[in-house]
Amino acid sequence: MTGSGRLLVVTAVAAERDAVLAGLARGRSAGAQAAVDVVAGGVGPAAAAAATATALARAQAAGTPYALVVSAGIAGGFAPAAPVGSLAVADAIVAADLGAETSAGFTPVAELGFGTSEHRPPAALSRRLADVLGASYGPVLTVSTVTGTAERAGTLMRRHPAAVAEAMEGFGVAEAAAAAGLPVLEIRAVSNAVGPRDRAAWRIGDALAALTAAFGKLPAALEVDPEHD
Ligand SMILES: O=C(O)c1cccc(C(=O)CC[C@H]2O[C@@H](n3cnc4c(=O)[nH]cnc43)[C@H](O)[C@@H]2O)c1
């Protein structure tokens, strides 16, 4: 993102939006200059896609288009790559449960011939961001249902052995960005391990703090033009 590039960050809920805003404020006090808008678009891929598409269209109509879109928030981490409290940056944003379930197993929508199953962030930019943030780097899975059993976690890991995190909005944000011809990133802070549901083990506060720290560094890390990735 160059100095003139406007950045749209989409989170699910207000607490994530506020954590991102706190990080951006910290970055500005350190001298980082970035035109960034942050939207809490709702939980799940459909809400995220609708909110992202609306924000992009409004900016385009106002003559102040965005140059880059980021899906950000908390996530489940796949062990050992992404422990609780760590950050994850997507090298691919994957629709992990969009497709068809048959007796032969799951077939992704792309293999059914009905569209895209994953979006690729700019490789050099996302890799550089992961390095700057000290984040794990790999596929981030988008699901419509939070994984709650070891069996489901195992199924996802077998299908996506390099996956680092699971969340619910990235693919929706990426679809809206792709429709607008814009590059997309996904940055997640790990609040829990993907697997058996244990709400007592969730560390949402720690994840939100990690998200704030990440966005304190992000504008400086993005001071490149994603068009020349
Ligand atoms: O199991 C529960 O009752 C429970 C407790 C706290 C949060 C939830 C959610 O459904 C959070 C979904 C929300 O947060 C993201 N997120 C965080 N961890 C995960 C995960 O392991 N798998 C998928 N999404 C996760 C997600 O992006 C949503 O915005 C449930």
From TrEMBL:
Protein name as catalogued: Futalosine hydrolase
Pathway assigned to this chain's UniProt record: Quinol/quinone metabolism; menaquinone biosynthesis
Pfam families, A to Z: PNP_UDP_1
NCBIfam families listed in its UniProt record: fut_nucase (TIGR03664), PRK08236.1 (NF006087)
Enzyme Commission number: 3.2.2.26
Gene Ontology cellular component list: cytosol
Gene behind the chain: mqnB
Domain (Nucleoside phosphorylase): residue spans on this chain: 38-198
Natural source organism: Actinacidiphila rubida
Catalytic activity: futalosine + H2O = dehypoxanthine futalosine + hypoxanthine
Enzyme class: hydrolase
Assigned keywords, A-Z: Hydrolase, Menaquinone biosynthesis
Gene3D superfamilies from the UniProt entry: Nucleoside phosphorylase domain
Reported function: Catalyzes the hydrolysis of futalosine (FL) to dehypoxanthine futalosine (DHFL) and hypoxanthine, a step in the biosynthesis of menaquinone (MK, vitamin K2).
MF GO annotations: adenosylhomocysteine nucleosidase activity; methylthioadenosine nucleosidase activity
UniProt record, GO biological process: L-methionine salvage from S-adenosylmethionine; menaquinone biosynthetic process; nucleoside metabolic process
The family this protein is said to belong to: Belongs to the PNP/UDP phosphorylase family. Futalosine hydrolase subfamily.
